[in-house]
C-alpha cells in the first residue's frame, strides 16, 4: 500500500499518522483489498446489525464505467453482490445494449449494507458509508459514473431534486471532474416498462459524454 501526502481528512478511513497539526497529514490510503476488508468489518452505522454480509461492489477495477445504485436488497444481501436478481438482469441487458458486458464495468452502491425492509437509506447512514465509496472512486478513477435511481442520484449529487429533472444533464462527482449521468433504476423500469425508452436515451447521453471526454 503506498504512502501519499493527503490533507482531505474526510477521506481518511484509518491508518492516520499525524506528524504535526499544522502540516498535512500523512496517511496510508487503503488499496482495494484493505478497503474491502474495512467494509466487511465495518460497524459504523446500525445497518451492520441486520446485514447478512456487506456488499462491497463488483466488476472490473480498470473499468471506464462506474455504475452506482442505492443499497443492497434482500438478494444482494444474501449473495454479497450488487444488482443481482431481475433488476440485475435488466441492468446487464441495458449495459449490453451499449456494448458493455457486466464484467466490463464496476458496480457499487451508496450503502454497503442492506437497510431493513428495503427502506430508503437515512442521511446519517449515507454519511457513514460515503468514505468507502469515495475511496472506490479514487481507486477506480472511472471515466464516467452512471447514477442509477433516485436515491443514488440525489445522494451523489447532494440534491433533493426529483430524478426526472436530474436526467439529461452532465454533472460531476464530488470534488472531481468525473462526469455523472442520471438514469432510472432497473427495478423501477421493471415496474414501469414504458420508461425504458428514457433510460435508453440516458445511456446514449452517457456514451456521448464519454466519447466527448476522450476527444
Ligand atoms: Fe459500515 Fe456502510 Fe455498512 Fe453502515 S452501511 S455498517 S457505514 S459498511
Task: Walk me through the structure.
- The protein has one domain: Uracil-DNA glycosylase-like domain (Uracil-DNA Glycosylase, subunit E).
- The radius of gyration is 17 Å and the shape is globular.
- The strands form two sheets. A six-stranded mixed beta sheet has the order 4-6-5-7-9-8, sandwiched between helices. A three-stranded antiparallel beta sheet has the order 1-3-2, with no helix packed on it.
- The chain has helices at residues 32-40, 74-79, 85-97, 123-140, 150-157, 163-166, 186-191, 196-214; strands spanning 3-5, 16-17, 26-28, 58-59, 65-69, 106-109, 144-148, 171-172, 179-183.
- It has 215 residues and is α/β, with parallel strands linked by helices.
- It starts with a strand and ends with a helix.
- Bound molecules: iron/sulfur cluster.
- Iron/sulfur cluster (SF4) binds at residues 39, 42-45, 47-48, 54, 111-113, 125, 128-129.
Secondary structure tally, helices: 8
The CATH architecture term is: 3-Layer(aba) Sandwich
Helix content: 25-40%
Assembly level: single chain
Residue fraction in strands: 5-15%
Distance between the termini: 33 Å
**Structural class by helix and strand composition:** alpha/beta
Number of domains: 1
- Major beta-sheet overview: 6 strands, mixed
